[in-house]
Write a structure and sequence with these properties.
This protein is of the alpha+beta class. The chain has 7 helices and 14 strands. Strands 1, 2, 3, 4, 5 and 8 form a 6-stranded mixed sheet that branches. Strands 9-10-12-13-14-11 form a 6-stranded antiparallel sheet, covered by helices on one side.
Length: 348
């Protein structure tokens, strides 16, 4: 095992997330927390296991408090598995067998023979005597262990207090899928450009015209809000005064998709032209557009925010970027594009 240098990424929730299966009396709730905690309650509605509770407040205590908790099964379930020639690799050393009915000694003797035990009896606590319980609530602890394992399906550790009532693998995984979807939504929202009306742009339209050769009516970007060596975020306010709305479409104005791509490309052009000392002497040319998806209409009154990131380092003036266009928090368009900056005196 080798320790990694990268910072661990967590899924952090900001609101309660609930899951219910009323038919099976199952309920989960994830509550915002600075660290991972889990509480489990089980109730099999019988006197053998009864109602049990287990909790884990620090994941560092998992090995000592939870890892030893073994799986469990009821005797009637074990008999079904044996009669159907299943659990051939099963061993009484790794499972607790609970008994919630009267059992004849002949049946116990048969089980002892099957599992190569000298003898088997039912303890006064309602389980077979082939082992001792690790803890009085070992069943609940094992269910807690299952929840931890199934929540790993999310793909990253979660900062939350998970409270589970009557969990089981089916509902655990359903809850994990719900959390994962929420995790994806949260990540998308984190990538969504968020600006207030008072946010001062990095470049205004006059600054942009010092870098881009485009001019109205084909200058399709108003502001650059953020930029680094690998990303750029730009903004365009779409108004009814746009000349393309005259014909696209009369009575139903919609911004053409190709112009959304052009506006995104102009945003990316600011990044790549910022890598040369004299951007006014260069022009940006499209080489490839790929994986374009138009997800929603862009209408007069919308503000388009473009977020682009380099997909590979800029080499020899070639720029490969992936971009997403938002109106508010809604994705309206996305694309990958390849462009090249060329000196104007080299065009002919």
């Amino acid at each position: 095992m080798e320790e990694q240098n990268a910072e661990r990424e967590y899924f952090e929730i900001t609101e309660n997330i609930t899951y219910k299966n009323a038919e099976e009396k199952v309920e989960f709730i994830a509550i915002p927390s600075d660290e991972f905690k889990i509480s489990v309650m089980i109730d099999y509605e019988n006197d053998v296991i009864g109602t049990q509770y287990a909790s884990l407040n620090k994941i560092e205590d998992f090995k000592e408090e939870i890892a030893q908790a073994r799986t469990f099964v009821f005797l009637h379930e074990l008999e079904y598995l044996l009669s159907n020639d299943l659990i051939k690799g099963g061993d009484l050393a790794n499972a607790i067998v609970y008994v919630k009915r009267d059992v004849k000694q002949e049946e116990l003797d048969r089980l002892a023979e099957v599992f190569n035990q000298p003898s088997i009896k039912v303890t006064d606590k309602g389980y077979l005597n082939h082992l001792e319980l690790f803890a009085s609530n070992e069943a609940a602890r094992h269910k807690l262990l299952d929840v931890i394992g199934d929540l790993a399906l999310i793909g990253k550790p979660i900062k939350a207090h998970i409270i589970a009532t009557r969990p089981g693998h089916k509902n655990n995984t359903a809850f994990a899928k719900q959390l994962k979807k929420k995790c994806i939504d949260v990540q998308k929202n984190k990538l969504t450009p968020q600006f207030s009306a008072d946010t001062k742009p990095l470049f205004d339209v006059n600054d942009i015209m010092e870098k881009l050769p485009h001019r109205p009516p084909f200058l399709l970007i108003d502001k650059i809000m953020e930029m680094s060596d690998t990303h750029v975020i730009g903004s365009k306010s779409v108004t009814m005064n746009e000349p393309f709305f005259v014909g696209h479409f009369p009575g139903n104005p919609v911004m053409p998709g190709v112009l959304q791509i052009e506006a995104m490309a102009q945003t990316g052009g600011i990044l790549v032209l910022s890598t040369v000392p004299d951007p006014e002497n260069y022009i940006t040319l499209f080489m490839k557009i790929d994986k374009v998806k138009f997800r929603s209409q862009v209408l007069p009154g919308d503000t388009l925010n473009f977020s682009l990131r380099l997909l590979s380092p800029i080499r020899r003036g070639l720029c490969h970027m992936g971009g997403v266009a938002y109106v508010g928090t809604k994705i309206v368009m996305e694309a990958e594009m390849l462009a090249q900056i060329v000196r104007k005196d080299k065009l002919n």
